[in-house]
Design goal:
DNA Cyclobutane Dipyrimidine Photolyase, subunit A, domain 3; single chain; disordered N terminus; about 260 residues; 12 helices; globular; binds iron/sulfur cluster
Length: about 260
């Protein structure tokens, strides 16, 4: 049917409509590629791969709801929890998100993103920013304040459970079953940031020792008595006994102090 047979409808309007339809179709195609399914079949596990359904239900729909409910369930005092008795102040370079002072490529990259945009994805918030704060023993209230101030989505209901509970384990395990922290090898496995770094993820002594690796072992050592009672942490804690160079690792961590890694 030609445009001339539609009284009152201009060719320009039809062109815009066609473009909008094409855009919606492209968007639907992107969503199908992203999740491996159409929205209509989203929850149909007979048609969609179970990992796609799990990814959407748990991560997109479920996690936000879980955090929102926990925020109200835990109550006002939750923000003051400090089960690990971490009291170190945040150093100036972190307070100011001074990414240029940091040599560790992963931390510098994420800190620069926060400084420049006020945002970074949930995973580097935990795996890099939160993990470093936890390893260094920074005060969880100060860490929560920093996340509040630095992020465009720093709503109270988002930050309090995610920082106090999930990232700093300051609730002693009410929200999560174990502390969320790791050595450099895990960061290497989960990202492409280690390639151009001055440090090496697998090294824990020497000038190229990865600060996340040394920080991880120092954290386990500091909280050994508590963590070895946690079934999910028994194996990692036992790993301390296999480190012939543990003293050197701890010495390196102590020397680093609160300087930017
Ligand atoms: S080597 Fe360590 S400090 Fe460097 S990018 Fe990898 S995890 Fe980060």
């Amino acid at each position: 049917m030609g445009t001339g047979s539609w009284p009152g409808v201009s060719a320009a309007w039809l062109a815009r409509r066609r473009a909008a339809r094409a855009s919606r179709a492209a968007s639907r195609g992107w969503r199908r590629r992203q999740y491996g399914l159409s929205w209509g079949s989203l929850l149909d596990t007979r048609r969609a791969p179970v990992n796609s359904v799990e990814g959407f239900v748990r991560q997109v729909a479920g996690w936000r709801e879980y955090v929102w409910q926990l925020y109200w369930y835990f109550g006002e005092d939750y923000r003051h929890r400090n089960a690990l008795r971490h009291h170190e102040p945040l150093p100036g370079w972190f307070q100011e998100a001074d990414a240029d002072a940091v040599r560790a490529r992963c931390l510098a990259t994420v800190l620069a993103q926060v400084r420049d945009t006020g945002w970074t994805h949930h995973i580097p918030r935990l795996m890099l920013l939160g993990s470093h704060a936890l390893q260094r023993g920074w005060d969880p209230r100060a860490v929560t304040d920093w996340f509040h101030r630095s992020f465009v989505d720093g709503y109270d209901w988002v930050m309090v459970p995610n920082v106090v509970g999930m990232s700093q384990y300051a609730d002693g395990g009410r929200m999560t079953t174990k502390p969320y922290t790791s050595g450099g090898s895990y960061v290497h496995r989960m990202s492409d940031l280690c390639g151009g770094c001055v440090y090496r993820p697998g090294e824990r002594t020497g000038d190229r020792a990865c600060p996340f690796t040394t920080g991880y072992w120092a954290f386990l050592h500091r909280h050994r008595a508590r963590l070895e009672r946690n079934p999910r942490m028994v194996q990692p804690v036992r790993g301390l006994d296999r480190l012939a160079d543990l003293d050197e690792v701890l010495h390196r961590e102590a020397r680093r102090g609160d300087t930017p890694p």
